[in-house]
Automatic annotation (TrEMBL):
One Gene Ontology term, aspect cellular component: cell envelope
Protein's name in the database: Cytochrome c domain-containing protein
Extent of Pro residues compositional bias: 24-41
GO molecular function: cytochrome-c peroxidase activity; electron transfer activity; heme binding; metal ion binding
InterPro entries: Cyt_c-like_dom, Cyt_c-like_dom_sf, Cytochrome_c_Peroxidase/MauG, Di-haem_cyt_c_peroxidsae, FlgD/Vpr_Ig-like
Highest taxon of the lineage: Bacteria
Species of provenance: Eiseniibacteriota bacterium
Annotated region described as Disordered, given as residue ranges: 23-46, 73-108
Pfam families per the UniProt record, alphabetical: CCP_MauG, Cytochrom_C, FlgD_ig
Signal peptide: 1-22
Domain Cytochrome c: 48-229, 278-399
Keywords, ordered alphabetically: Heme, Iron, Metal-binding, Oxidoreductase, Signal
Record's subcellular location: Cell envelope
Amino acid sequence: MRWNPLLRSTVVLMLPASLALAQGPPPPPPLTPLPPPPQPAENPVTTAKANLGKTLFWDEQVSSTRTVACGSCHQARTGGSDPRSLLGSTRATNPGPDGTRGTADDVLGSPGVVLNTASGAFSWSTVYGLGEQVTGRTAPSNINAAYAPEQFWDGRASSAFVDPQTGATVIAAGGSLESQVLGPPVSSTEMGHIGRDWSDVAARVAAAMPLALSPAVPADLLNWLSGRTYAQLFTEAFGNAAVTGARIAMAIATYERTLFSTQTPFDAEIAGTPSLTPQERAGMQLFGQVGCAGCHAGSLTSDERFHYTGVRPVAEDSGRIVVSHDLADLGAMKTPGLRNVALRPAFMHDGRFTTLVQVVDFYDRGGDFTAPNKAPAVRPLGLTPQQKAALVAFMTRPLTDPRVAAGTAPFDKPGLYSESGLVPQVLTGGVAGGGGLAPQPVALEPPLAGDPVFTVGVTGAKGGAEAVLVLDDAEPPADQGVPASGSFARLTTTLQGSGASDGFGSVSLGVADDAALYGRVLYGRWFVDDASAPGGVASSPAFRLQIFGANAAGVLAAGPGARNAGTLRLYASEPSPFRESTVLRFDLASPAKVRLMVYDLGGRSVRRLFDRASAPAGGYALSWDGRDDAGRVVPGGVYFYRLETDHGAATARVVRLQ
């Protein structure tokens, strides 16, 4: 193979520093762009299975509280990591081994679920109370995870995939993605309840309407779903309707095998097309010379091995040794790939750095802690400011796939309930109890029509006291005693805990599967017997919720001209004006042939968002990303979206900002 001098720096990237700087024979052939990831013969990639996996990955109903999806922690806009993991965020802070937030051993993790039981009742966490629990490490990127032989920072998800319900080996080798899926849904911190197993998870999935909590579903996926049940989707993907833990894992793993990022400037460069600036190319050269490429090796930018690099003391996180039982792995973590790294909000397994500049400074000073097994390559480097800037430049644009940054297919996603305006909102007010503070409501779960278990908690109240939750169409007064009734519900419980403000509890109720409830606004407030409170009753701030149907049906008011003889309803887009994406919703009163198109002011077709010969009755929500059918970003301006059915048509306007 002929040596291409334009790619000299690329070759250096794959060499250890000692070889990169040595004199010798001509360099080896350049790296090649990443091929598609391998797939096990026992679980080949199919379109149906990938679509099913995408649906499951983004469905918050998989979690016990219906508030967390796999996608909550892994989003393209943050490079496949968790957008909620923001330094300084109490919600995303795990207090570390000492159990106290605000100290040096804190970890930036991912918010999970409130500790809860199989009945839906909230339980008290000694660390988080009735708040969302937080994982003990940052979420690794799921993009390009399909290349890894083992998953998680410590590699505990192995290549052999074992059916979680039968114990049979399903994939002998190459099934680390399937193995990884098995952890979070049954973790009582991340997505599960105390004692949850995979039979529970499978039963939840089988009973759910796919992506019912999503306020917006990409058009292609919505077309594939076509209003079908999970049983029908599993039939298409696997040949019959059985919903099992192994199949859930295999579908999600299949979807993740479609999330490989191979369209970066770095890929173009190593394919022979010069695509880097002089500074970026200098950074790539330096990346190999100073030893970064010893671990962040090859075109994947990871050796997929485990190293202790001095990020934190080994006593604070044992790392790989828990899996390998090898002292050489004490505190060691897997080398993360650096593709799309500049999009991530936090770096290292504990999230201690928020910029790549800080990461480069860390390695330049040789790490912050030491141990006998510390990687030899982590040593003081003596980099100049110009060299540091070049390294950061190389890790930014050259390693970023524009599809990942923009969230376009295959990296697009359904909207999440937990990121929408559908989450109940805590208001102000309340009456303080004996502890000097008002009790606090915990209202996180979705008020979805048809939800059999909707749980609301209270904390910071008098322990052992009787507490009443009132849900009413009007806000219950805070200071007029306990209401005798509620127009929607009035529920009573005895709080656990003791002391003037250490009491806690929760109540659960079902929400009827009734379209007449869609859009109904309710106000809730807790009332707690407390002789030390004015009038003998402490009360919480009120909270507001709005009952909704599948895909947020019933929560938006129709715009002008959006109705047509009661057979269809086209809603105002939200938001409008918009820059990145907007949600277009419509309701069908009966099955119909449907097409939803976007047009420019000249009446020219811009985007076909939905086209189905027979769509079932119900609510629909589609996201328009401001692109035309060819994938090009459209100019800012006024556009019209038109819903056409065999029962009639409706048109509305949307504005895209430049």
